[in-house]
Design brief:
Protein name: LRRCT domain-containing protein
Organism: Cryptotermes secundus
Order of helices and strands: HEEEEEEEEEEEEEEEEEEEHEEHEHH
Pfam families: LRR_8
Keywords: Leucine-rich repeat, Membrane, Repeat, Signal, Transmembrane, Transmembrane helix
GO cellular component, one term: plasma membrane
Length: 442
């Protein structure tokens, strides 16, 4: 099948010109050749020598394990090349030399472990580069030196253990960078400092245990930062220092036990924060003092027993608040926080875990029955304590039982009285009927 690709060509007509289409590929009038899912195992060096007008070439879902250095040499007008889902293990350094117009390159789902330093050197117009789901462990420092127009770069689902800031030093136009699902353990301060246009950075599903201070401070357009599913145990004062533009921050499913009171001080644009699935036992009352734009706060599945009202007061824009899965103590220490979120029609979806008598009871059901003193010391007014509520409930049942017994007694008395009256009335009538008979007999 592979040898047919260069032995024969068929003609594909377009409205404006005649282009030659490789055999067995499907070509369209917009100069697109679809050669996917053809079980191709190799391509000869002349496979596309008569297809110089092609703008899009799709070779995904084949079995290509290697490519000759000049296989694409005639495709000087090509703008998109798709090599996804093959078995490529390496690439010749001059493979893309002639593709000066290339804008989109897909190399996902192959078996690449590294790349030659100059393999992308001539691709100065490249805008989108996808390399995810390979086996890349490292890359040469100069690998992206020519990609000044690159906007999207995906290196997710590889085997990267360390990031080299040299990779990114010429990527001033990059807006989206995916580095998730690798084996990264740390983020250094200046790694991303050249990415002045970056808007979305994904670092989730790694093994990150440390992030240096100011690691995101030189990213003036960063809006979305995903750090979930890592191994972070603490967020210190300056990790997010200078990261003012961030709107969405995902830190869920880490091992966070401690958050500095100044951890989010610079994040004045924050609208969403995910802290769920961690080991937090408490939150400093000043943690969110700069977050007046925050709309979503996810705190479920931690180890929180209470929430300080001072933590919530700055959150004037909050619309979603989740506390479910926490061992909350539903006493007067939670009273002010409950009043705050109730006044804003927020539902934290949480239930009480303490005191024991309240396990599984919704926060609302428990706290709306409490009357706390002005100091909020946690002492409940005896008049409406949980013990009394239970006692009143018990008394209510007893009162109901006594009432029912009284009613039954009254009904029984009425029935007995009625029975006696009926019997007496009948006896009187019988006597009246017998009197005339007695008179006649006399």
């Amino acid at each position: 099948m592979a040898r047919w690709a260069w032995l024969l060509l068929i003609v594909c007509l377009s409205p404006t010109a005649t282009a030659l289409c490789p055999l067995m590929c499907q070509c369209s009038s917009n100069y697109t050749a679809v050669c996917s899912s053809l079980n191709l195992t190799s391509l000869s060096s002349g496979a596309f020598q008569f297809s110089s007008n092609l703008l899009v070439l799709r070779l995904e879902r084949n079995f290509l394990s290697s490519l000759s250095a000049n296989v694409f040499s005639t495709l000087t007008n090509l703008k998109r090349l798709d090599l996804d889902e093959n078995t490529l293990k390496d690439l010749p350094e001059s493979l893309f030399t002639s593709l000066h117009e290339l804008q989109i390159l897909y190399l996902n789902d192959n078996s690449l472990t590294t790349l030659p330093g100059n393999v992308f050197r001539t691709l100065e117009n490249l805008v989108i580069l996808w390399l995810h789901n390979n086996k890349i462990e490292s890359l040469p420092s100069e690998i992206f030196d020519s990609q000044k127009n690159l906007q999207t770069l995906s290196l997710m689902k590889n085997a990267l253990r360390k990031l080299d800031k040299e990779w990114f030093k010429h990527l001033g136009s990059l807006e989206f960078l995916a580095l998730s699902n690798n084996q990264l353990v740390s983020i250094e301060e200046d790694t991303f400092s050249a990415l002045v246009s970056l808007r979305n950075l994904s670092l989730h599903h790694n093994q990150i245990i440390s992030i240096q201070d100011h690691a995101f401070s030189k990213l003036p357009k960063l809006e979305i930062l995903w750090l979930y599913d890592n191994r972070l145990s603490e967020i210190t004062d300056n990790i997010f220092n200078g990261a003012t533009p961030i709107k969405s921050l995902s830190l869920h499913n880490n091992q966070l036990k401690k958050m500095s009171s100044k951890a989010f001080e610079s994040l004045t644009s924050l609208e969403q924060i995910y802290l769920d699935g961690n080991l937090l036992t408490s939150l400093d009352s000043k943690l969110l003092q700069s977050q007046n734009k925050l709309r979503m706060l996810e705190l479920q599945d931690n180890k929180l027993t209470s929430v300080n009202i001072e933590l919530l007061k700055p959150l004037v824009s909050l619309r979603t608040f989740n506390l479910s899965g926490n061992p909350l103590l539903c006493d007067c220490t939670l009273w002010d926080a409950w009043l705050w979120w109730s006044a804003r029609a927020l539902n934290p979806l949480a239930t009480c875990q303490l005191p024991e008598i309240s396990i599984g009871v919704s926060i609302r059901q428990q706290l709306q029955n409490l009357v706390c003193n002005s100091e909020r010391t946690g002492r409940v007014q005896p008049a409406v304590s949980q013990t009394r509520v239970q006692a009143e409930s018990s008394c209510g049942v007893r009162n109901l039982t006594v009432g029912c017994l009284i009613i039954l007694i009254i009904i029984s008395a009425i029935m007995i009285g009625s029975f006696i009256y009926i019997i007496g009335h009948r006896k009187h009538r019988v006597q009246e009927m017998l009197l005339p008979l007695e008179s006649n007999s006399i």
